């Protein structure tokens, strides 16, 4: 059986309630800060991923044009130049 006693001092009771209210407010603020930090981490990660994907796509498209023009030296008259490209099953010569 639990016995409780009535507070003898109303100011002590008020201070105790105030202390419990402040403790609850601190816990709620700590929880909100954790949710905010987790959201910011997720947002920054998404932005970094999108930026890296855009950079990779841009590098892929710009590198293919520059590299293909730079790899083809002028062939002398009467020679045949074969070009090879990678495919999922191996290399293909055209």
Helix and strand arrangement:
Layout: H1 10-71, E1 84-87, E2 90-93
Antiparallel strand pairs: 1-2
Structure description:
There is one protein chain. The protein has a two-stranded antiparallel sheet with strand order 1-2. The mean pLDDT is 84. Strand 1 and strand 2 form a beta hairpin. It is rod-shaped. The protein contains 1 helix and 2 strands.
Q: Determine the fraction of residues in helical runs and give it as a percent range.
A: 55-70%
Question: What is the count of DSSP helices, taking H or I runs of 4+ residues?
Answer: 1
Return residue spans where pLDDT drops below 50 for at least 5 consecutive residues. none
Shape assignment: rod-shaped
Rounded mean pLDDT is 84
Q: How much of the residues is beta strand, in percent?
A: 5-15%
* Spatial separation of the terminal alpha carbons: 92 Å
What Rg do the Cα atoms give? 35 Å
Structural class: mainly alpha
Features:
rod-shaped, 94 residues, two-stranded antiparallel ribbon, mainly alpha
Short description:
With 94 residues, this protein is mostly helical. It is 66% helix and 9% strand. The protein is built from 1 helix and 2 strands.
């Amino acid at each position: 059986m639990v016995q409780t006693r009535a507070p003898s001092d109303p100011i002590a009771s008020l201070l105790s309630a105030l202390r419990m209210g402040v403790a609850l407010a601190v816990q709620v603020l700590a929880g909100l800060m954790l949710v905010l930090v987790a959201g910011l981490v997720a947002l920054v990660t998404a932005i970094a991923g999108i930026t890296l994907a855009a950079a990779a796509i841009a590098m892929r498209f710009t590198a293919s044009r520059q590299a293909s023009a730079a790899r083809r030296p002028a062939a002398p008259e009467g020679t045949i130049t074969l070009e090879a490209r990678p495919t999922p099953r191996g290399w293909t010569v055209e």
